[in-house]
Amino acid sequence: MPRPHTLEAVLGTPGTRLYHYTTRGAALEHILNAGSLRVSSFSGMNDPREAMDWRINPVGAPGRSPDDVRRLKADFNAAVKRRSKVVCFTKDVEGGADPILDRGWAHPRMWAQYAENHAGVCLFFDRTAVSARIASALEPHGEIFSGDVVYANDPPELVPGVGLPFDVDIGAIETLSLDVAVSQHLQHHSQALFRTKLSDWQDEHEFRFIVFTQDEEPIYVPIAGTLVAVAMGWQFHEVYEPSLTTLCGRSQVPVLRCSWDNGSPMIDLSQPT
Hints:
This protein is α+β, with helices and mostly antiparallel strands. The chain has one domain.
């Protein structure tokens, strides 16, 4: 018999949820249907800072030809961008004063940009449970880097004794191997490279999990027991609601609907559960 849900229990207290906005197709055909969340290549991000190759300042490369330096820089970029996998969430505003607007599901620009202009969905995850599940799934693949995204317009800071994030020891790639050189570089600069964006992105309140792996294949994280609700955008077409309800019903996950009252976000259970 399905367990009862209350809106208060589903929403939880601020800070206990992580949110993932996505399209209707991605939710129905992949995430909910397969019961897993895809952790994809960093090169697929929509921020130019992340999607484009970095302009690397080579150090430790005396006597090497320009062609060798270009090749090693390209190898470094390819390894970091294609073999680093990332999954992104929105979090509640820490210390937020507004009980609705500071929740991660209540951002109209996020609905517009990542959830198909309000025709997609927002997945609600239990923060503790999904963090543990992701860590368990990613750990066999490599070193995990996780945490809040920092938003800043200032140039990256110098790490004493190490250098700047875009200063890459080209010599280490040849002497230690590409994997070891990249891993060492990320240990010092993961925050600047993976979890720093311009201030224009700050309203996303993003939390990320990243892992540097040995290949370019995506990783799939089972989400059973971590997903607490799925919210439909106000433009989610009613013809797809039975499919969403059926998929969520497999795990007794409640379906919510996000609507807007004179521009203010509202959310409620879409049907008895």
